[in-house]
Amino acid sequence: MDPESRxxxxxxxxxxxxxxxxxxxxxxxxxxxxxxxxxAIMDHGKVKCYGTSLFLKKxxxxxxxxxxxxxxxxxxxxxxxxxxxxxxxAEIQSSLTAQLVINLPNENADQFPELFRMLxxxxxxxxxxxxxxxxxxxxxxxxxxxxxxxxDDDGELSSPNTPLDASSCQxxxxxxxxxxxxxxxxxxxxxxxxxxxxxxxxxxxxxxLPAKQRNQFGSLFSALEFQKQNFKLISVKITxxxxxxxxxxxxxxxxxxxxxxxSYNEVTQxxxxxxxxxxxxxxxxxxxxxxKKILYSCRRWLLTLVFGIGPILLGILVIRSTYSLFKVxxxxxxxxxxxxxxMNTDVYYRAGDQSSKNLESKFVTxxxxxxxxxxxxxxxxxxxxxxxxxxxxDVVKYRTNLLIAGDFNETNSTVIYNNxxxxxxxxxxxxxxxxxxxxxxGNSESYIATINEPIEIQEHxxxxxxxxxxxxxxxxxxxxxxxxxxxxGYFMALPLNERLSGIKHLQMMTKLSPIVYWAACFIWDYFCxxxxxxxxxxxxxxxxYDHIFTGPNELGALITIMLLYGWSAIFYAxxxxxFKKSLVSSMLLFVAINFILGMFLNSAMxxxxxxxxxxxxxxxxxxxNIFRIITLIIPxxxxxACISGFVDISWENNRxxxxxxxxxxxxxxxxxxxxxxxxxxxxx
Length: 684
Known about the structure:
Strand order of the largest sheet: 8-9-7-10-11
Radius of gyration: 47 Å
Helix content: 40-55%
Structural class: alpha+beta
Number of helices: 26
Distance between the termini: 63 Å
């Protein structure tokens, strides 16, 4: 790639830092230095060194490179001699006509200011045009590591773990995050002055200890153990790359023993994490897989919310639809014909010659008892004329509020009604009849109740009829069943994406057991399923006013059915992640097959259940029964069959809670007395 395109690609990869784990292989050392938080150098398929860029440069690097641009007449030996006086370990790395490169060790970094001051002061005397300092590059680290690897192959002494001395040992300290490294370093220098800090990681410090001062190792180890709590140290270990731990296991190497020559050592032997196994490995795998599932759900929170809230809404909808079916099938109750049946009614009347035989007083009293607004017209007016005038002034009020009017005199009385209201004729007759009854009987408590009874509904439409439960079952199969089906279908999304991207295969290559992989997926998916089931049951409980389907027994049966369905159907859904190459096509296949087998086939078999039962009594091995037993293997068919049985039994046990019409009380009483409650027992 050209430099500009390469930089754009680097920026893209760096934008994923913190949210993605990216594995990159490259031969370009600058690219590894820029992008890699951790860098590993491989040789013949084996990792030879591993660590951060800073650690590798410190372990393998040659320090700093001082580049001096000089004149042609410049005396290089004078410059180098002056530098050697300040930094004796300095070495000439390359010498060209116009450039001199001198290597300066890391350990002499504190002497650099004095060195630069001397060179700047003698700039003209040394014929120096310019100077520059550069750190060790990853290119140099790679070349140095490759050289050490070749030296190891030739049997030469080269221990990357001990870059300063082949016989050196390492002090490895595991620390807390807030540990003061400077205090630890000062203590180490007190006992081993020539020790050097090799690496300062987040949880580890590594020092190089020269073997010639190993008589101080015991005192150093004891001092560090004593200061563990003050320095916030977790563990301390002094180790030799060849013989193993010296402290705390001091039996490996006696003071008089000479260390054996190492045959081969990896760069970060003591820094690389040890491989875990057994229960610890299993726990770590499950923990990481669960975290991955949780992150996947959180990053797709909108899609997760849509599929999660679907069963809850469908649960509410099926309860509301069932109760709407109750209202339609029950039919209207009888209507009491009185002014109180209408809101905000007006009664207009005119009283003629006052006489003890006039009915207007009883008429007014009864009207007021029925919460009507009574308006009296002057006795000299024509009531018909007044009514027409009221209509012309406010036609809306005339049509909606004025229902009854009365004209009373000594010889006769007239009651007028507004025929816009359907029941106004009956109300007018009933009102006048009650006024006449109370006047003639002399009892103001006498009252005639007039009820308009509806036409009696047919027997097959009666909610107390046993066959009415079939309609409810069809409603539940149509509305409620698909809710959890969509949710479970969504659970195949992550396994499908990982299969298509190859991530699942990569995980299996890390010795991850397929059983652990699918078990971890199931744990999180089943947890989400249980949460949705609980919320669905709570929502249905509050909308099921008569608790026909959410009584104590019904709740236990419904929760058991749904939880068992989730246990089997989630694994069943995982199978569909192997068939298609996109989530949409896999979901369509999953929903289509289960709709046919679950809702349509189960509805048909429920409608002909009586025929199937008759055939089972004659021959248990008939085609219908064998087909049903085979299809019960499919979780959604079993779930649909269980819900059908649940709704049928729940309705049969509680249908008389809805039968509240007076002419149905006797029928419900006989049903309750003659039919014992069924216990939930559903074959699966």
